[in-house]
Amino acid sequence: MKIKVGLLTAVFLLANLSIATAAPIYTFPVAACTVKYAKTHHDYPATDIIAKKGCAFVSPIAGVIDEVVLVDKWSGKTNKGEDRGGLSVSILGDDGIRYYGSHLSKIEVNVVPGLRVASGEKLGEVGATGSAKGTSPHLHFGISYPTQNGIWWVRRGVLYPWKYLDAWKAGNDLKPVVKTPATIPAEPKK
Ligand SMILES: [Zn+2]
Questions:
Q1: Which residue in 36, 106, 129, 164 has the fewest CB atoms around it within 10 Å?
Q2: Which domain holds residue 128?
Q3: Total of domains in the chain
């Protein structure tokens, strides 16, 4: 019994040591602001993280900036898929997974495709651009497998991020499980 307790104490100390020394791999994508998000999303898997306009959108992981949309071209008349995100940034994470944040009010000037970013680095600010016009400011957050540029229907999200968001918020490095299909689905009609 004594040995068992001793062993458990050692394991506990070691576990704490690794938590204290290792930098977090994943960062919750909205920093220093009160947030709210649901376990659902309209039409396809993603998460809308409600936060005040101007709250920092930060990179959820270290990686390389993938695509950046700097101009809001969305119109309610056309509602084109590629315009719905408004101002947006996608990141190819070092874990091989793509992360996407959209409806931004602002993108940091240095954020351009190919830029190397750290986990938690500020990329832009929460807003209501694109199809979020007229709604509460929020960060649309999507997780997907990487594709070539412009495949907006994959980039916007292919799996529900909420359980990863919950983990990262609590300081746990949970890697999303993302499957890359043999063929990329065709562009949806709407
Ligand atoms: Zn959304």
A1: 36
A2: 24-164
A3: 1
